[in-house]
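note to self — DONT lose this again. spent like an hour looking for the file last time. sequence + predicted structure for the chain T wanted, 415 res
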Amino acid sequence: MSLPILTSAPGKVIIFGEHSAVFNEPAIAASVNSLRTYLLVTETEDSDIVELDFPDIGLDHKWHAKELSQIAAPSRIAASEHSKNLNPALNAALEPLLKPLHGSLQYHAAYCFLYLYSCLCGSRRGVKFSVKSSSPIGAGLGSSASISVCLALAVGKFGGHLNSEPEKLSKQELDFVNEWSFIGEKCIHGTPSGIDNAVATYGNAVLFQRQPNAETKLEHILNFPQIPMILTNTKIPRSTKVLVGGVQDLITRQPEIISPILKAMGQLASRGAKILADLNESNLADLCELVRINHGLLTSIGASHPGLEVIKSLSDSMSIGSTKLTGAGGGGCAFTILNQDASLKDIEKFKNTLETQYNYQTYTTGLGGPGCVFLPSEEIQQNISVIEPLFKKSANVSDLNAALLPGISGLKWVH
């Protein structure tokens, strides 16, 4: 495919089942439409380089043809060859190219990029990949998966593996993106579940359950209407490993009490999946009730935090909606599904209170929505003067969403 290329993919939240999923209970993750990663691929003046520019994490690195020529990655290789274990010969070839990078975020972003590029783009040079995200990095909202999905879609097109200008991404093409983005996630996380990249690829929601053989069974929940919500990032640091370990210790000490709680969380996820598959105004209240119950169950096993309870208490006292922590808990993020009768004035007061009194970060967004998308070449060319400045360090999230957000910006994204 000719340049430029522009792709995008969403972040995610866990709606039901965090922590209980570790014990093989079902759980649901859903896309967050306005928290997205965008990737712009353009030609460079220097035909000898490949550049990755990711200003959100302070990364701008160029690799020259001489360096890249040391990589002997075969072209057009199947994703299945990498899904179990990353290619050791390719890893060894990439290591010298990654040495100059400092910081875990920069290293792993570059590792993901070079691995996918080497496998899918072969010897193509003279290209720049610019990444910009409206999702907070490292907040447990699937930002790394959305980056991997953007890369898989872009390099798949650039390398000629995907139809250059279809009117819609086919199931086969989406499966290609999902498989290769999972490999990108392996570069970043080592042993990902595959859930985050599946949500970022296909969009809407995914019901998932870990199987006894350690594989993850996924069931897509598609075509439900976006659910208005406020997502709040407390910015309180937390350790997923410590929190998961705490629940495991608790179930060891109190198995008769904690096991039924985890089972109940699994039942919540199964019931929630049925509601989402047939969501309408009459059963939205049932979904909200499940959200409130799940938060209470998570609190009972020690997954909440006083900072998260601030959000829950405020949403209850203002009758704004139903709030639940999302992810490991102990800080991090919570979402509030808005009541249908919540006024704009109260919503703004809710957000303003959290931002000014607690220094939290809030996002007005929708639960669910499209997965990965790309912009046709003609559409990019017509809007390139608006698009290119958005990938500079100085560009802010509101400008990014106003100009590019699918469903809001007016651009004719293909998904």
